[in-house]
Amino acid sequence: MPERHYQEYQRFYQEQPFGLWREDYRTAQISHILAMINRDPKSEVPKFSDYMPFFSGQTESTDDDGVADYLAKR
After folding, report:
1. What pLDDT, on the 0 to 100 scale, is given for residue 24?
2. Is residue 35 one of the residues assigned to a domain?
3. Backbone angles phi, psi at 15, to 5 degrees
4. Is residue 42 part of a domain?
5. Which one of 8, 27, 37, 51 has the minimum C-beta count within 10 Å?
6. Own/partner pairs for 23-27, CB < 8 Å, 24+ apart?
7. How far apart are CA 15 and CA 67, in angstroms?
């Protein structure tokens, strides 16, 4: 990989961190589904956010992840 590309990845990561967030999200989905299946029908329904402690209550927008804006400004 050319040094220029590596530097672009570094700048992009500073603005839009990427990593294991999606993996954590998928694990939380599986955990939530298992909790829903195995819960007592008389108990309170578990919230999805209970399985994502870093979740701030905002949903991730799948429409715009910032990549197009970043590439347009570089």
Report:
1. 81
2. yes
3. -90, -40
4. yes
5. 37
6. 24/52, 24/54, 25/52, 25/60, 27/51
7. 10
Q: Is 29 inside any structural domain?
A: yes
State how far the Cα of 30 lies from the Cα of 22, in Å rounded to an integer. Answer: 12
Which pair of structure tokens corresponds to residue 2?
């050319």
pLDDT tens over the chain, length 74 residues? 899 999 988 888 887 776 667 778 888 899 999 999 999 999 999 988 888 876 665 555 555 666 677 778 77
pLDDT value for 32: 93
How many structural domains comprise the chain?
A: 1
Residues with Cβ within 8 Å of residue 27, at least 6 apart in sequence: 51
In a domain, 68, yes or no: no
**How far, in Å, are 19, 20, 71 from residue 8 at the CA level?**
16, 20, 10
